[in-house]
Specification:
Layout (H helix, E strand, L loop, with lengths): L1 E6 L6 H12 L3 E7 L3 E7 L2 H7 L3 E11 L1 H10 L6 E8 L7 H11 L4 E2 L6 E7 L3 E9 L2 H6 L15 H10 L7 E4 L6 H8 L3 E6 L2 H10 L8 E4 L14 E4 L14 H15 L5 E6 L3 H6 L4 E11 L2 E9 L2
Parallel strand pairs: 5-6, 5-7, 9-10, 9-12, 10-11, 12-13
Antiparallel strand pairs: 1-3, 1-4, 2-3, 4-8, 7-8, 13-15, 14-15
Helix pairs in contact: 1-2, 1-6, 3-4, 6-7
The structure holds S-adenosylmethionine.
The site of S-adenosylmethionine has 23 residues, from helix 7 and strand 10.
């Protein structure tokens, strides 16, 4: 199947990396990929719909039906036999100054020969992207971005300014490539934002924090989750878990300033934690971790194999590096 994913464009590489990691998590085989800053087109085999439901940094995921100039798209639309089913056509320009309605109208007329327009709840939701070429697709999934905004940290029962925005917490979970119904660990769980997203994706969560208040607060925030995670007070360098007992790790450790380390130097904490993670992960298991500087990538590479990094500038003195490592 060919699919296209309209990326959120909030970062030049992270949305694409999230989408590819979500495919890998669901064992979707990607046979080919082309991309621009806002669009990722993939040739895939496997449960792509399940992977689509994981995404946070995307808008719409479609099965690609045809691409080319307007005549090609219209010829395809005219050849469709909808058998009276309802449909909708929505067009969107990708960095081009084209009027969407000039495309929606003629396509609607072509498809209307055998189907009926329903703008609110159609059986078939067509989407046309207008760029260098036109791409027509059928919507498989729309990312619920308002849900990701509604669970913004400040709206949760327990919140502190240290938390990642839910959409970036979700991307972090996806980067850890945990398979369906697998277990994801956050050993620096703080207010529980990463575990909340893991629960939304149907993953089993395990969380630790050295501070009792954090563990209590996270428990309150996650009480309403269908599958509440296992939480306990523990040091990230000495976790009470058997090796191989989690499928992946997604975590946002202290950066050495606002978040507490109880006076421990950050390089010592990271060295201990990387070592513990390497001993805990199964072979092929991934660590997705937010680091405050690129220099820690080298330290992580002493314990695990480096896969990718995406720098996200938060403000003048904070750049979050979303990094992925794998246990070889
Ligand atoms: C940046 S915050 C995590 C933010 C989290 N992503 C959230 O959504 O709230 C880092 C957390 O690590 C905890 N921490 C610091 N040192 C630790 C250690 N050695 N072991 C476990 N947790 C630790 C702190 O108490 C803090 O809650």
């Amino acid at each position: 199947m060919r699919v296209f994913i309209e990326l959120s464009g909030e970062h030049p590489t992270l949305p694409r990396a999230e989408a590819l990691a979500a495919m890998a998590s669901e064992r979707v085989e990607v046979r080919g990929a082309t991309f621009g800053p806002h669009l990722l087109r993939l040739d895939v085999v496997g449960p792509v719909q399940r992977a689509a439901h994981r995404l946070g940094l995307a808008h719409v995921v479609c099965e690609e039906l045809v691409s080319g100039d307007l005549d090609t798209i219209r010829a395809f639309a005219s050849s469709q036999e909808l058998g009276g089913r309802t449909f909708r056509v929505r067009a969107r320009g990708l960095d081009v100054d084209l009027d969407p309605q000039a495309v929606e109208g003629p396509l609607g007329a072509d498809l209307g020969k055998t189907g009926h327009v329903d703008l609110d709840a159609p059986q078939i939701d067509y989407r046309v992207l207008l760029g260098d070429e036109f791409v027509l697709g059928r919507v498989l999934h729309r990312v619920d971005r308002s849900r990701l905004e509604a669970t913004k940290v400040a709206n949760r029962p327990f919140s502190l300014p240290i938390s990642l925005h839910p959409k970036f917490a979700r991307a972090l979970v996806n980067l850890a490539r945990v398979p369906m119904a697998g277990t994801v660990l956050d050993p620096f769980c703080g207010t529980g934002g990463v575990l909340l997203e893991a629960a939304e994706l149907g993953l089993r969560g395990v969380g630790f924090d050295r501070e009792r208040g954090m563990v209590r607060g996270t428990r309150t925030s996650l009480r309403s989750s269908a599958d509440a995670p296992d939480l306990a007070i523990a040091d990230a360098g000495q976790l009470p878990l058997r090796p191989g007992s989690v499928h992946g790790i997604a975590t946002d450790p202290p950066y050495g300033r606002a978040a507490s380390t109880r006076g421990e130097a950050i390089d010592r904490l990271y060295a201990r934690a990387f070592q513990a993670f390497a001993e805990l992960l199964p072979r092929g298991g991934h660590l997705a971790i937010v680091l405050p500087s690129e220099k820690w990538i080298e330290r992580g590479s002493k314990s695990l194999e480096f896969v990718e990094a995406h720098a996200l500038r938060v403000h003048r003195s904070l750049v979050r590096h979303f990094c992925v490592f794998v246990r070889p």
